[in-house]
Amino acid sequence: MAMQKFSKFIRPAPGRPGYVTDRDLDILDAVLRYRFASAAQIARLAGGNEDVTHRRLRRLWERELINRWAFPGFRWQSEFHYYLDHNGALDLLAERRGLEIHPQMLEEIRSHREKDYAGAAARGQHMQLGFLNHGLMISRMHFMIEMACRKSRGKIVLESWCQGGQIAGHKVDVPKIKSSRQGGEHFWQEVDETERLPVEPDAMFTLRFLERPPDRQLSHFFYEADRGTMVTTDMLKKFRGYYYLIKKQQRHREAFGIHPVRAVLVETTDEARARKLMELTNHPLVCGPSKRAGLFWFTISSLFTDPVEGSPVPRYLSQPELVLDPVWALPDHSLHALGDSENSSAVTPRS
Predict the structure, then answer these.
(1) In 10 A of CB 39, how many CB atoms?
(2) What is the distance between the alpha carbons of residues 53 and 161, in angstroms, rounded to a whole number?
(3) What residues contact 7, with CB distance under 8 A and at least 6 apart?
(4) pLDDT tens digits, 280-296
(5) Alpha-carbon distance 312 to 316, whole Å?
(6) CATH code: domain of residue 88
(7) Do 229 and 170 reside in the same domain of the chain?
(8) Which one of 39, 54, 103, 310 has the fewest CB atoms closer than 10 angstroms to its CB?
(9) Is 351 within a domain?
(10) What are φ and ψ of residue 122, in 5° steps?
């Protein structure tokens, strides 16, 4: 009888039974918290022997407790990325780890199952692949923040991380704007009407700096993962929403339960895109050119995704603490670290 071949993309039927170990539970917990996570991220989050973690990931996939996809390529596929699309993982975490299952968790798992990301990646569906890349960008930032805090030797704690439906649905009333095009340039002006703009960060997180005085330990951040696909008009509206909610109307405490907001962190694709976005924050309809726009901090993905010299491993995996360094630029091009208590402590790059 011919041996059944194992496919990387098709589960064996039926899935092989076996005991769910503590490492398995650590893996399921990491995938639940991150929504989407690469095998390399999970191996580092779970700790221990990486080969064992990769074997357990495959076993959990075979048992349909997690699902996975790989981005298609001409010659080879990417590494596997994992997500939950089955309630069984939640039930195990509830039974063995005391997880409190919230409706939002069930809704996300239902959505993942219906959207069939594994199938969409195999079919190369463009819209779904864009969504998954955006999700992995958020996951990468979450990973760097969490691992950087672990490496701080107790000096910095990730107090909370929220994303998705946890922080969706907020809007702010702002003066409506009308756009016009003259020659090769766009012009905007406010009119005597209002419109409601969404303020829905890709993530919101709080860091606790334990070496500070007790009343100054918490720093709250919003995070935006910009893949360079949103047009200028929509980005202008996004920045206006943040600025009006936080600075003009100061409704962030009411909407999100945090105060003060240290910064809106914007990670984008490259330096050219970052400069364009910086110009937008200085637009008269956002902060205005006469004001120091210290609310928005920018960085570029290549700082995290490029490999360390002499190694194929990207920096975000080998040096996640880089995210805490002065790699965040203001529109005035001064550089800041997440631990800076005031903008005046910034590092200004040499020209």
Answers:
(1) 18
(2) 24
(3) none
(4) 998 888 887 655 558 99
(5) 12
(6) 1.10.10.10
(7) yes
(8) 310
(9) no
(10) -65, -35
Please indicate, yes or no, if residue 4 is contained in any of the structural domains: no
Q: Mapping DSSP to helix (H, G, I), strand (E, B) and coil, where does residue 323 land?
A: helix
Q: Looking up tokens 């989407």, which residue turns up?
A: 36
Q: Nearest-CA neighbor of 166 among 205, 113, 139, 131?
A: 205
> Looking up tokens 């909407």, which residue turns up?
255
At 82-139, the pLDDT tens digits run 999 999 999 999 999 999 999 999 999 999 999 999 988 888 887 888 999 999 999 9
Q: Are 259 and 316 in a shared domain?
A: yes
Nearest of 151, 267, 157 to residue 201 by alpha carbon: 267
| End-of-domain residue from the set 124, 156, 189 | 124
Task: Name the nearest CA neighbour of 134 among 269, 306, 312, 323.
Answer: 269
In whole angstroms, give the CA distance from residue 337 to residue 320. Answer: 14
The neighbouring-strand residues paired with 341 are none
Tokens of 169: 């649905």
For the chain, state the CA radius of gyration. Answer: 22
β-strand 218-225 against 261-268: which pairing, if any? parallel
Residues near 249 by Cβ (< 8 Å), separated by ≥ 6? 172
Is residue 6, in this structure, part of any structural domain at all? no
Please indicate, yes or no, whether residues 200 and 337 belong to a single structural domain of this protein. Answer: yes
Say if residues 202 and 225 touch (Cβ distance below 8 Å).
yes
Task: Tell me the pLDDT band of 9, cut-offs 50, 70 and 90.
Answer: low
